[in-house]
Structure formats: structure tokens, C-alpha cells
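3.2 Worked example (two chains)
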Amino acid sequence: MRILVLSDIHANLAAFEAVLEAADGQWDRVWCLGDLVGYGPNPNECIALLREFDHLSLSGNHDWAVLGKLNIAEFNEDARAMVLWTRSVLEEESRSYLESLPSLRVVDAFTMAHASPRHPVWEYVLDYDTAAENFAYFDTAYCLIGHSHVPLHIIEREPGDLLVEEVVNGRIVSLINERVMLNPGSVGQPRDDDPRAAYALLDSESLTWQFGRVPYPIEETQEQMRRENFPRALVERLSYGW
């Protein structure tokens, strides 16, 4: 099966639509690794668009926060403001959908967690030590994660010996005979100094994974954010991919 793997859409409809257009005809199903909402101006629209497709999804920390499942005192000031705004506009159908989502799934050889297999809702896997510790928390060959907004390819060459790589657009990696953690990056708020929306294409039969990036009309999203008086830093960061 050909799968479009997404994470951290963060209510950025323009970015989500650009990814769907770029990947058109290359996938049969969508896997979303969580954080559909938070930061962006289109939470209901992004949820509705995802639900148009054959898909499965996880719940992330921003989804949990909007639902009142996390103490938002742990969020920074701007993130807290966006949680409260999202709560104020979230439709009941969207809320019910978010409530239905798990934070961890296992499908065949793939474990999926929003943040990490050890702490599915909130742990950043960005450094060698954290990655090495997390390999003990899944039994499948492959683990797909999001949350950090950084595309990553992490190979366990043997227990305790990893290769941790940030990756570039278009790179195809073979998963055959590998035990790996993979992060497709963020659709709606990249944080790797590349403002383009990030995604991945997984072929579960040939066991290949292709990282993808696509430009989107950032100004369109920023204008919507300004109309809603979103924090300035959140508006501006989209231009820089951080």
C-alpha cells in the first residue's frame, strides 16, 4: 500500500492543501501522526479535509490541550493563547473526532506515536541519547513519530549504536533489513529552517520511504492569522521555517 504520512498539520489549511496537490496520485491512504490543531487558523477545515480520505490518525499534545487533557501551564505563552483560541472556534463535530483519536497505534510492522513510543504525546526525539532509549519501547521494525517538526531518519545499526540524520527533500530510503525511527517533519509549522511543508510517502510493500517538501502560500496563512490577532511571533516564524 502507498501511504501519505503527515504530522503536525497545526490547522494550516494552505500547507495541507499544497501537500495533497504535490502528492496527488502517489498514495492510497493517509496516516497522520497527530497535532491536527494548534498554532494555525483553520482547525475545523483541516479536520474536515483529513476526514475526506481513507485515513488513520493519532492525537498529539496540542490536540490533547485543546480537549483539556493537558495542563496548558506547561505551554509557552503563545502556545497557550492558541489553545484557548482553538477551543473557542472548534466545532462539536471536530471536537468529537479529536476525542476519538489514540496517541499510539501499531499497524503491521509499524508503530506510530505522535511524540515517541516511550511518551506518545510529549517527548522530543532529536538527540542521540533520547533516540537510543526509545528503541527499547517498540517491538516492530519501524516506528513513525512527529512532534519535533524536523524530518529525521534514525537507524539502529545494533542496540545502542544509531545513525541519526536530518534529511533533505526527495531523499528515498530503503527500510529493508533496517530497524528505524522516521519523522516526516511538519506540514504546517516546519522547524528546520525550511519553510516548505514537509511530508513523506511510504510504500509498505516495497518498503521505501521518500521525504518530500513543497512550497505553499505562506502569506495566505499569515494574513488569516493576523486577522485573528494571533501572536506576532507565530505569524512570522512561518516565513523562516522555525
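3.2.1 Second chain
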Amino acid sequence: MEPSGDLFDVAVWQPALEKCGAVIQMSVSLFGADEEIVCGPVPITPIVALFEKHGLEPAASAECVRACLAQLGDSRPPIVVATSSGLAVVGVSLLLDGRIVGALVGGYTPITFCESVGISRLARETGTPFQDLWAAARNMSPVPARRLVQHGELLQVLGDTLLRENRLRRHSEETAAQLTTVATVKEGFLAVLSHELRTPLTPILGWASILKQQSDPKVVHAAEVIERNAVFQLRMVEDLLELTRTMQGKLLLNLTVVSLNDQVRASLEAVADGALKKNIAPQFIDAP
């Protein structure tokens, strides 16, 4: 099972939970599969502020979380509504690949008009001063069971959406990491290949230079052809190195003037032998 930290980015979940809580007028909390709270409750309603101040919560909240995380079956787990002394919480299971990975719980809201007996019992249960709890509860309007189920459906949609977006984001990050690895391997391969291709060209150019000093015109011409093609090959290797530097963001432009006559003459000389065998006699005339 994936750890909660991989599924629930608080920076993403908390603002979404706060907006949802403002809509349903309840504090919303996110719990991981281990029943530990991941973020929330948000927004902080007056009654939640009281419970947090005195360090205890109604038992309905823990019961709701356990019920959401304990649900099994192939179908979508039902919305859980738990009550305690007239206050209700609503919870939904968070599903990923058919597994329950967490729960969203919203609370607290009265399901009937508050009575002093129920609030007194809740005050003892949560260690909250009765007068403070009574003042906060009296300002809350009761929510019918049908509306609580609708709140749960909204929490389900929110949870499914955020989990789906989290999966897409993680997939994008993994793909980007793989592409970076491939690019790094490719750059390393090109660097090694360029070095290996460059190494044998050095003695070829050296021996061609020596052969050019011979008196036989054919040998000199052959040496010039060898040297010219070796230089051409060396430039191709330099282009590979330049490509590697470009991918690394280290490209440097070296602007020079190139004689087109020399390039065309070299190309014709490279194919001259094959052309003569086919009775083709290419000629090159220098441009004025």
C-alpha cells in the first residue's frame, strides 16, 4: 500500500477541503488508511474550535472514520453518517484501484434543534464548558438526513477528483524522470561514440600527410583524397559533439566564412572514380 504522503499532498488537498467545507458549512478532515489525520479540519467552525481548544472530540467522529476505512466489497462503499448527542458527522471512503486508501469526514452539524440535555451530555463527553458549547450549538441550523447524504456525495466527488489528479501528476513526474534518464544515457553514448570515432582519425591524417610528401603524383593525389575524407569524417564527429553540447545547453556558435567552391570541388572528387567507371566526366568551374 502506498504511504499517505504519496497520495495526499497537503498543499493540494487543504485548499480544496477548505472550499468544500465552506460550501457544506462543515469542517472537513482527511484521514489516511491508518486512521491518522493528514490535514484539516478546515475551515475551523466555532464548535470545532471549542473541541480543539479542550483537546477532545465527540466519539461519533472516530466511529465515522473507522466505519469508512473498514468497508469492504466490490461496490462503492456507502456514505457513513454518525451522530453523538444530536450532532452529526458524515464520512466517505477514498478508493484507489478498488482499495480504500483514506477517508474524508465532515462535521459537526445538528440533525435536530439543540436541547440542553444533549448539549450537556456532549459537554461532559468532550470536556467542553457547557455554556460555550451551548452558545455555539444554538447558532447552528439543523440539517436533514437527506442533506447530509448530499454533503457526503460532494465529498466523494472531491476525493475522487483529487486522487485522480494526484495519479496523473505522479504519472507525469515519473514519465519526465524517465525521459531525463534516457536523455542522459543518450548524451553519454554520443560523447563516448564521438571519442571512439575521433581516435582512429588522428593516425589516418598523420599518414596521409606523410604520403603527400611523396614524388609520385598518384600517391600524392590519393593521400589528398584520404586526408580530405578523413577531415570530413572528423567534422561529422565534431557535429556529434556539438549535438551533445546543444542538448546540455552548452552550444557555442563559431561563425566563419566557408568557400562554396571548395565544398563542391571536394564533393566531386569524392565521386569522381565511380563516375569515370560509368563514363561520366564531371567538371568543376570556379565561380568568378
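3.3 Remarks
The chain has a mean pLDDT of 83.
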